[in-house]
Write a structure and sequence with these properties.
Shape: globular
Helix content: 25-40%
CATH superfamily of the largest domain: Medium-chain alcohol dehydrogenases, catalytic domain
Bound molecules: zinc ion
Number of strands: 17
Order of helices and strands: EEEHEEEHEEEHHEHEHEEHEEHEHE
Length: 333
């Protein structure tokens, strides 16, 4: 089968992914073999390919937003059938036994395996996945639309869950309005939250209002009311401080990025009155499954730009230098 293989991390300008004909993987017990239909291209892939996030194995096939159709099932597999369309996210496997897994925090499992990082991912025609860690894709999404839901969307949804507002309702701030926030906004609006969007881009201000935001404006602007919770998508420490300034007493700030510039001056006054700050790491199966269902109900429609598998390096170059408004997806055939 054809795969975009990473043998040695290097700047993406050197086109480190090599299109290779590699042996077809075989599903073991508890595993399924997928025919890959689409694989999203994520900023984390860029960090893996360039070596900022050194891959746990080499060579490795990147890609962790995989939509595929089950071609074969291994021994002992229940609940997943041949011909079913499923998604594989960043969480490839968790141990189920450690203190984190037992508390429902498999995203923090110290033995977890990650797709396209510790094991081969979806920049390929075929891929093996753990049957217990694939997720049914609602029929309303095309293969290409479903791919970005599996990472940016699912992480955004985990951040939304961690705000606590899905239980209590209230005013939610979204700081940064890229693809992840685009996927979360309709879900939050459908759940009855009042959403305030902070972005420096005037066109995004208009888009956010058209998508149902109660208010949208620049990051340093004062919103008409204090926020009960906020999610920061922008990887900039100063934005986190701005978000804290707008939080109501007892409010919670959730940082959704895996990377952020230092938070330089954090005055204690900004945390006073029981304000909290929390980061988001990885996703659980529950996050992915709930988000896929919520996104279908809320009519989330990710906009995607499709590249062929053989152009994976070009796709990463575009993400690095001229990121498009929506998400980038690879099509293996
Ligand atoms: Zn990702
Ligand atoms: Zn574990």
């Amino acid at each position: 089968m054809l795969a975009a293989l990473l043998e040695k991390p290097a700047p993406v300008e050197e086109r480190p992914l090599k299109l290779a004909d590699v042996p077809e993987p075989e599903p073991g017990p508890g595993e399924v073999l997928l025919e890959v239909r689409a694989c999203g291209v994520c900023r984390t892939d860029l960090h893996i390919v360039e070596g900022e996030l050194p891959p746990a194995k080499l060579p490795v096939i990147p890609g962790h937003q995989v939509v595929g159709v089950v071609r074969e099932v291994g021994g002992g597999v229940e609940g997943v059938a041949r011909g079913e369309r499923v998604g594989v996210p960043w969480l490839y496997w968790s141990c189920g036994a450690c203190r984190f897994c037992r508390r429902g925090l498999e995203n923090l499992c110290e033995r977890a395996l990650f797709t396209g990082y510790s094991v081969d991912g979806g920049y390929a025609e075929l891929m093996v996945a753990k049957a217990g860690f694939v997720h049914p894709i609602p029929p309303s999404f095309s293969d290409f639309e479903a791919a970005p839901l599996l990472c940016g969307g699912a992480i955004g949804y985990r951040a939304l869950r961690l705000t606590g507002l899905l239980e209590s309702g209230g005013r939610l701030g979204l700081f940064g309005f890229g693809s992840s926030a685009h996927m979360v906004l309709p879900v939050a609006v459908r759940r009855g939250l009042e959403v305030y969007v902070f972005t420096e881009s005037e066109s995004k201000v208009e888009l956010a209002k058209a998508m149902g935001a109660a208010w949208a404006g620049p990051t340093r602007a004062a919103p008409p009311a204090k926020l009960d919770a906020a999610i920061v998508f922008a990887p900039a420490g100063w934005v986190a401080v701005e978000a804290l300034r707008k939080l109501e007493r007892g409010g919670r700030l959730v940082l959704a990025g895996i990377y952020m510039t230092p938070i330089e001056r954090l005055e204690y006054e900004l945390l006073w009155h029981e304000r909290e700050v929390k980061s988001v790491a990885n996703v659980t199966r529950r996050d992915v499954r709930e988000f896929l269902e919520e996104a279908a109900r809320a009519g989330v429609k990710p906009s995607v730009k499709v590249y062929k598998l053989e152009d994976a390096n070009e796709a990463l170059l575009e993400l690095k230098h001229r990121p498009p408004a929506g998400s980038i997806v690879l099509a293996p055939r």
